Amino acid sequence: MARKTGSHAEITGPAIRAAALSLFARSGYAAVSMREIAGEVGVRAGALYLYTPDKQTLLFDLLRDHMEHLLGAWADAKSGTTPVERLEVFVRFHIDYHLDRSDQVFLSYMELRNLTDANFQSIETLRRTYEDELQAILADGLDSGDFTLADVRVSTMALIAMLNGVLTWYREGGRLSRDHLQGIYWNMARGMVGA
Amino acid sequence: MARKTGSHAEITGPAIRAAALSLFARSGYAAVSMREIAGEVGVRAGALYLYTPDKQTLLFDLLRDHMEHLLGAWADAKSGTTPVERLEVFVRFHIDYHLDRSDQVFLSYMELRNLTDANFQSIETLRRTYEDELQAILADGLDSGDFTLADVRVSTMALIAMLNGVLTWYREGGRLSRDHLQGIYWNMARGMVGA
DNA sequence: AATTGAATTGAACACCTGTTCAGATAGAAA
DNA sequence: TTTCTATCTGAACAGGTGTTCAATTCAATT
Known about the structure:
Two copies of one chain form a homodimer.
Chain A: H1 9-27, H2 34-41, H3 45-48, H4 55-77, H5 83-100, H6 102-110, H7 117-144, H8 152-164, H9 166-169, H10 178-192
Helix pairs in contact in A: 1-2, 1-6, 4-5, 4-6, 4-7, 5-7, 5-10, 7-8
Chain A binds a DNA duplex (30 and 30 nucleotides) through helix 3.
């Protein structure tokens, strides 16, 4: 019983990536076996190798695709003219994106250490590109006098860490609506940069 | 060649925990084998079981000891009377503690998912106890009018996430001294809570 | 010098790991 | 109906996993 009806590469390929994403996010890269991923897709382990050269590349592709999609989404979303406006857009975008793609985001900062050196460098470059978008906003706000902050780099890292933290505790459908949440974070962000 | 000169339980036990801590922090719990840990200590895998019932308990003990030590250290360090003073002490303490014990801290929030349910609950309770220390400061500051913040719980989580973020990028001996770093974070924290 | 007992080894257990590949399968094309 | 070929299986490979335990080693005690 090799090929099942309606089972084609165009379906299996994405299904493998979706299963890997979900399992890696839940249990961690090292704790998930190729046989588990295959089982989730309804296929045997050998079939995975029609779609990825190896397990490492499967992880790397997930992280790279996520980072590239993040950068693309931000390029579309970024707007505003004053530093204050631009920062508010960034804060709201970042929270939205994270909550919509929590598995990808979670993976992307939990599994960096399981990448080979070359793959790690590649992802780090993309991540740094994203950080630089925020850093540019802060630098402009410092120049214009809209923001009061001691160190642009430190503020950038602190803001991103604060925003990423949302993932660890916020659950949709709880006490706070997403919009309310974004408002609270935007207020705190504004306080952090002295605006 | 069983026992080497000067090799006793009082030495091997702590050495195993130190090796496990270091290896788990570097590569992740799932990716480190008992044989690797044993090799780092200079012993065979079987000998580890004189000091821990199993690998899971080895991880759990590291996390529990860390959390208990953190709570103890905070009990010693906490001081100040006004909410503003108390918050500054917390911010500086948290950064200091994290930078001094980066492996433990890193482990404690990277490897939670590798704990069994019961062990996870146990650690979560300790973590929540620590968070509540900060939350109490914020609640008092809100009551007294010293702080302006929309949601005590959200501010607590945001502050802790921001402070934890220091670990991911700060390196001792770089551009910023530790004291300078603490000052910058204290300023941002103050802005976040509207003080 | 003989005995004791804590500390450690080395081999074994049952099973899991990522990966490869000859062979089977089945939908589409001829 | 036969041929073709993308897709998938099943078995194998070489090695690794956590864990157990009888046998060994050696410092301290008698």
